[in-house]
Design goal:
The chain has 274 residues and is of the alpha/beta class. Helix content is 37%, strand content 26%. The protein has a seven-stranded mixed β-sheet, with helices on both faces. Strands 6-9-7-8 form a four-stranded mixed β-sheet. The termini are far apart.
Amino acid sequence: MKKTLIRILNSLVSSFSNTSLGMYIYQVIVSNAMDKSKDFTHNSLKLKFAIPNRLNVYRVDTFATKEPETLEWIENIPKGAVLWDIGANVGLYTVYAAKLNDCIVYAFEPSVFNLELLARNIFLNGLQKSVTIIPIALSDKKSENIFQMSSTDWGGALSTFGAGIDQNGKPMDGIFEYKTLGMSMADAIRDFNIHIPTYIKMDVDGIEHFILRGGADVLNTVESVLLEINESFEEQSNESTKILSEAGLSLYKKCAVDSNNQFNQWWVRSKASN
């Protein structure tokens, strides 16, 4: 029934938008959707995010419950630290870190469908001077390559750059793709002269080990890393563990993200591993 309703609505919108009046109304609807936002308070902090669709409403409504370990990790970042949010999506955690701890944040997000919302959310929270958007994919080297996406929804996730794999190490079931630029963490520091991170949050759906591979020297000075790892994807899990360990980091704790052996791993420089 849902698919039938969607087909009917798509047909009506397509027909209606062929007229001048229909196109005007269509533009007003889209504009109003992008301007819609929601305020809420978490940890005594007032936050505001754009909610143009159900996915972003869900992201806001589950902010406190979806990944509490990510919020805990952010809450342990000291004031004024430099955070790289790699795979920032629409910036929920970028905004929280910048607003809670006065972090200098570099938000890496190559999705053209998420960049507008990322920018809007930074602006809605008055963080233009604290957050720098870097609309370039990170990988193990500087290159041109294909960015594949499993969704074109505003706020969508599950995408990959260059490797053609999903978060499980399987071939990406993409529905949209384009060629764009990628670079390593070391390249980003050298070419853009940006701050070296002291904290890194990484959620890039399967290519975490590629990015870590291109940032071994950067990791040597990082205090803590939070990244999402599928422990059934042995290449990703084993190489990530090796690189982080060689950088002097230890696994402090991990929390299950779902039932598919996906974990948020919290690595630190000074605490004993669990």
